[in-house]
TrEMBL record:
Residue intervals of the Sulfatase-modifying factor enzyme-like domain: 14-93, 103-148
SUPFAM superfamilies in alphabetical order: C-type lectin-like
Name of the featured protein: Formylglycine-generating enzyme family protein
One Pfam family here: FGE-sulfatase
Length: 173
């Protein structure tokens, strides 16, 4: 984990916090699932493509096809939490675009880190945050950040996709 000091960013001030240097990987999530018996929403779907959950040979790629509830379950198991949108934005400061953005996943930390030492803030996968999207309407939506875009996007809490993962934080206060 990497320390992000207290400060302000475009979304306002944040207290200092620890954040995973990389998105959670298939290998890390598979260890959680094996220990707890947890099944993601995607793995409960009978017609899910067999490659979609913890693909063989891709343990070092970010886990994908995880809904917000799946990310929260992993974070709780790990003694962590999902970052707020403001925490995520502050941590992403000066992050370079990852190589191959928009072309499927690649191993985490394959590109250059930002000034804090965080990898894959942009490119590789979009990431869940803890914040509700303000204009979600009747369908509950959370904010996702990163991936191929630099803007916040709404995503249904029970939705998942092959370009959607997460990383975790630990708050000290």
């Amino acid at each position: 984990m990497v320390w992000i000091p207290s400060g302000s960013c475009e979304l306002g001030p944040v207290d200092g916090f620890w954040i995973d240097a990389c998105p959670v990987t298939n290998g890390e999530f598979a260890a959680f699932a094996a220990e707890t018996g947890y099944r993601t929403l995607a793995r409960r779907e009978p017609d899910l493509a067999p490659w979609a959950a913890y693909p063989a040979g891709r343990a070092d790629h970010p886990v994908t096809d995880v809904a917000w509830v799946d990310a929260v379950a992993y974070a709780a198991w790990a003694g962590k939490a999902l970052p707020t949108e403001a925490e995520w934005v502050c941590a992403a400061h000066d992050a370079p675009e990852a190589p191959g953005a928009g072309a499927g996943t690649r191993p985490v930390a394959a590109g250059a880190p930002n000034g804090y030492g965080l990898y894959d803030m942009f490119g590789n996968v979009s990431e869940w945050t803890a914040d509700w999207h303000r204009a979600s309407g009747p369908l509950p939506m959370k904010v996702i950040r990163g991936g191929a875009g630099r803007l916040a996007r709404p995503y249904p809490v029970h939705g998942y996709g092959d370009d959607l993962g997460f990383r975790c934080v630990v708050r000290t206060g």
